[in-house]
Design a protein that fits this description.
184 residues; mainly alpha; 66% helix; 0% strand; globular
Length: 184
C-alpha cells in the first residue's frame, strides 16, 4: 500500500511540475505579475486615502506649531542646544573625533583671550578629575568633544563655567575647539 501511495504522489508531483513549466513558458514571471497587481492596488488605495493623509499631516503640523516655543524664548533653550550639538556631531567632527576646518592660529588667539584666565596658559590650571588621574582641557577636548563643546557653548553652573553661546560666534568656537585638541 505504501508503494502505491508513494508512486501516486510522485506521479502527481511530476504532472504538476510539467504543467507549471508549460504555463511558465507562456506567461511572464509570477513575481512581475504579482508586483504589478500590488502596485496598481496600492496606487488606487493611496489615491483614495491621499486627502485623509494630507489632513492628518496638516493637523499634526498645526499642533506642533502651537506647542513649539518662540525662537529665542526661555522655552527654546533645548532646541538651541540640540541644534548646536547636532552641528558638532554631523558637521564638525571627523571619524577620529577631530574638529574639521578649524583655524588653529585664530583658535590659539581666541583661547588666550577667553579661556586662559581660568584654564591657564596650557589648559592645566583646572583638573576635571580631581579624584583620579588628572584630566585637563586638552584631554577633554580630544577624548570627549561633545562634553567640551556643550560646556563651551552653554557653560556648567556646577563648575562655574560661563556660557559663551551668545558671546563667541560659531566659527570662533570651532577654532577654539580645534586648538584645545592640540593642548597637552
Amino acid at each position: 500500500m505504501q508503494m502505491r501511495t508513494t508512486t501516486l504522489a510522485i506521479a502527481i508531483a511530476g504532472a504538476l511540475y510539467g504543467a507549471a513549466i508549460g504555463i511558465a513558458a507562456d506567461s511572464p514571471p509570477a513575481g512581475k505579475v504579482a508586483n504589478t497587481q500590488v502596485k496598481e492596488t496600492l496606487s488606487k488605495d493611496a489615491a483614495k486615502d491621499a486627502p485623509a493623509k494630507d489632513a492628518v499631516k496638516e493637523t499634526a503640523k498645526d499642533a506642533q506649531a502651537k506647542e513649539a516655543p518662540e525662537p529665542g524664548s526661555p522655552g527654546d533653550t533645548l532646541t538651541r542646544e540640540d541644534a548646536r550639538m547636532a552641528y558638532l556631531v554631523y558637521k564638525l567632527l571627523d571619524k577620529k573625533g577631530k574638529i574639521k576646518g578649524a583655524n588653529l592660529k585664530r583658535g590659539a588667539k581666541l583661547f588666550y583671550q577667553n579661556c586662559r584666565p581660568c584654564h591657564g596658559e596650557d589648559g592645566h590650571r583646572i583638573n576635571f578629575n580631581p579624584m583620579g588621574d588628572p584630566a585637563f582641557i586638552g584631554q577633554r577636548a580630544r577624548d570627549d568633544m561633545p562634553t567640551f563643546w556643550y560646556q563651551m557653548n552653554f557653560g556648567d553652573e556646577d563648575r562655574r563655567m560661563e556660557s559663551y553661546y551668545d558671546e563667541i560666534s560659531l566659527d570662533e568656537m570651532k577654532d577654539i575647539a580645534g586648538y584645545a585638541q592640540t593642548l597637552p
